[in-house]
Design goal:
Elements: H1 7-10, H2 16-19, E1 25-29, H3 33-39, H4 42-50, E2 56-57, E3 62-66, E4 71-75, E5 84-85
Length: 90
């Protein structure tokens, strides 16, 4: 499987200075668990959890760019607010 491109390579026209309002928070995410599993194997994800990382879901206000592997979004709330932990691998 080929390496997946980071958002700044996949969406080169994205410019946070002009695309994101001053009162918005911006992030990169996956819209489905299937997409997220393309980024992290179960072994990699387990290691990330040991380091304190976790997969979460949250509501977004706007999707700025989207592909079959990821998206760039904005929301009015900080990214840590209202995030709900999800189980990536059972």
């Amino acid at each position: 499987m080929a390496n997946l491109e980071p958002f700044y390579c996949e969406f080169p026209r994205f410019n946070p200075a002009t695309d994101v309002a001053h009162n918005e928070y911006c992030g990169c995410a996956c819209s489905t668990l299937k997409q997220l599993k393309r980024w992290f194997t179960e072994t990699e994800y387990n290691r990330l959890q040991e380091l304190g990382y976790k997969a979460v879901k949250l509501k977004v206000d706007r999707v700025l760019h989207e592909s079959d592997i990821q998206l760039i979004f904005t929301r009015k709330r900080p990214l840590r607010r209202g995030a709900t932990e999800i189980r990536l691998y059972a």
